[in-house]
Amino acid sequence: MPETRTFWERLERRVEATPDAPMLIDERDAQITYAEYREAALRAAAGFLDHGVRPGSRVSLQLPTRIGSIVVMGALARLGAIQNPIVPIYRESEIDFCLRETGADFLCVSSEANAVDYEGLLARSERGFALLPCLPALPDGDPATLPPPPADGDAVRWIYYTSGTTSRPKGARHSDQSVATAAAGLIAFHELSADDRFGMAFPFTHVGGLVNLLCLLAVGHRLVVMEAFEPKAAVSLFARHEVSVIGGGPVFYTAFLGEQRRQPGQPILPNFRMFSGGGAPMPGELHYEVKREMGGLGCIHGFGMTECGIVCANHVHECDDKLANTDGRPIEGVELRVRRLDGRAAALDEEGEVQIRGPAVCHGYVDPAATEQAFDADGWFHTGDIGRVDAGGYVTLTGRLKDIIIRKGENISANEIEDLLYTHPKVGEAAVIGLPDRARGELVCAVVAPAAGAGKLGFEEMVEHFRRARVMTQKIPERLEIVDAMPHNATGKILKQELRGRFEKAPQKP
Fold first, then answer.
1. Could you report the per-residue pLDDT of 283-309, keeping only the tens digit for each?
2. Rounded to the nearest 10 degrees, what angle do helices 7-17 and 176-190 cross at?
3. pLDDT attached to residue 508
4. What CATH number has the domain bearing residue 373?
5. CA gyration radius for the chain?
6. What is the pLDDT of residues 204-216, one digit of tens each?
7. H/E/C letters for each residue in 87-124?
8. How confident is the model at residue 452 (pLDDT cuts 50, 70, 90)?
9. Which of 371, 400, 429 is the C-terminal boundary of a domain?
10. Which domain covers residue 110, as residue numbers?
11. Fewer beta carbons within 10 angstroms: which end of the chain, N or C?
């Protein structure tokens, strides 16, 4: 297990080692070195101090993936604030929930126009918080006024919300150390070195953003970021800066592979070493396709979650069969077991719920009731994922206990979407299911039985219903199926598996 250190101590040690090495590069080709990042973070920290942010202040932040946003995270880490990074797809409903549950003192946002009405959110809030617009300009203060940096690497400093495996997301409480342990596992399994250039195609406010930032401070390579993923632009940016490792998940692997197929025989990423990711199931054939057509090591896929940034990973020297068909082995700092649904230990290659514990796992949830439900008294966290472990210790995930849909790496709560569908007068019964989709991993399909005496719900009518509720776009179903009646079991529960079987390969009706 790595020695306990704070985020800021890790940055100081990196600056001592390689002050002038490039650290961050953005899509406009702007660059910042490790020493420049430290100085920018110090000035911003002093500026936040002038605005009332103190050690222990709770700061929610919804920021685009830019160098300035990453400086903000460093500045708040220097102050010892408790940060709640919010993914950019969240809208007023989800943001308001995060603010209320964390008891946020501040909301740090970009002053540039976007789809969220922050002023309206503040006006409607039941409790006071202060808005801290900080981009494109950062607050600037005198670093000499700063209090001492935080010293406890095990104190909770980060709250990351799950995408929503129940009707509401859960806030996972992390320390610098819990995320650093995940980062150490990624470094070891992927053999990251200072020569690597890591391309980040996903939003930095995911827990994976912090994992990668701590990898950066430990290894001293450079990180190339982009604000919004677009395949052609990503290829141009990553090729221009000689990116060797690209983070993300299957949806990103597939997008880059599609770009490669536009010019077969000519590598679109000449320095490509591997894809690194998790967060969604990966079809085994995708690894072989990437390796065959793009070169390098293919897809070094693993298993991570908001509650534990890296649970399992494959090593870069694994055979293709393991890379294609397993989620790898637990990293150091994660103890893993599989329990059958009757509570007994699963045998080798027997399916059951995957449970984990160790220093890489979060310190519970913001909601104590959610913590009590998900964690055993002896520290085992119930992931809700179904999987098995073979004789070599390789984990293969096979399903989920939780009724969620993983769309482009985001966990979408079927229950939350169903609750909203039921508020439409034309909906009698509703079931939301995930259907396999190569581009998204899964797409969200709403199955609706009309209310008695009501007409059939139309697709555009359904979409408008969701938009009026101001939920994030990813929760709006991409497909709508109308049925005369739902299939039920003896207790009245809708048989979703039967619906999946019915619509999995059926074309959508016009």
1. 888 999 999 999 999 999 999 999 999
2. 50
3. 62
4. 2.30.38.10
5. 23
6. 999 999 999 999 9
7. CCCCCHHHHHHHHHHHCCCEEEEECCCCCCCHHHHHHH
8. confident
9. 400
10. 7-312
11. C
Which residue reads 């692997």 in tokens? 253
Report yes or no on 278 lying in a domain: yes
Task: Looking at the structure, tell me whether residues 188 and 130 fall in a common domain.
Answer: yes
Whether residue 14 sits in one domain with residue 133: yes
| CB crowding 237-261: b at 16 or more within 10 Å, else e | bbbebbbbbbbbbbbbbbbbbebbe
Is 294 in the same domain as 424?
Answer: no
Is 479 found in the same domain as 346?
no
Say whether the peptide bond before residue 250 is cis (omega within 30 degrees of 0): no
Tokens of 27: 């899509």
CA atoms within 13 A on the CB side of 241: 29
pLDDT score of 50 more than 50:
yes
Same domain (yes/no): 308, 179: yes
pLDDT category at 496 given cuts 50, 70, 90 is confident
Total number of domains constituting the chain: 3
Encode pLDDT of 3-23 as tens digits: 668 999 999 999 999 999 999
Is the per-residue pLDDT at 167 higher than 70? no
CATH number of the CATH domain containing 451 = 3.30.300.30
- Pairing type for strands 335-339 and 352-357 reads antiparallel
Mean pLDDT over all residues of the chain?
Answer: 92
Angle at 315 between CA 312 and CA 321, to 5 degrees: 95
| 475 and 358 in a common domain | no
**370 phi and psi angles, rounded to 5 deg:** -65, -35
Domain annotation covers residue 322: no
161 and 212 part of one domain: yes
Distance from chain centroid for Cα 477: 20
Q: Which of 109, 309, 102, 292 is nearest to 202 (CA)?
A: 309
Is the pLDDT at 2 greater than 60? The verdict is: no
Residue 262 · residue 250 · CB < 8 Å: no
For residues 282 and 363, membership in a common domain is answered with no
Confidence of residue 416 (pLDDT cuts 50, 70, 90): confident
Whether pLDDT at 490 is above 50: no
Examine residue 317 and state whether it is found in any structural domain, yes or no: no
Structure tokens at 122: 């503040």
Are 442 and 475 spatial neighbours (Cβ–Cβ below 8 Å)? no
- The SS3 call for residue 293 is helix
CB 176 within 8 A of CB 104: no
Q: For residue 64, what is the domain's CATH number?
A: 3.40.50.12780
Q: Is residue 473 part of a domain?
A: yes
Helical H runs in 353-510? 368-374, 414-421, 459-468, 496-503
Q: Looking at residue 166, what is its pLDDT?
A: 47
Q: What is the pTM of this model?
A: 0.85
E-strand ranges in 40-169 read: 58-62, 82-85, 106-110, 130-135, 156-161
Residues contacting residue 426 through CB under 8 Å, at least 6 positions apart? 448, 450, 451, 454, 455, 456, 457, 461
* Residue pointed to by tokens 């059951």: 352
Q: How far, in Å, CA of 300 to CA of 314, rounded?
A: 6
- Distance (Å, rounded) from C-alpha 208 to C-alpha 253? 16
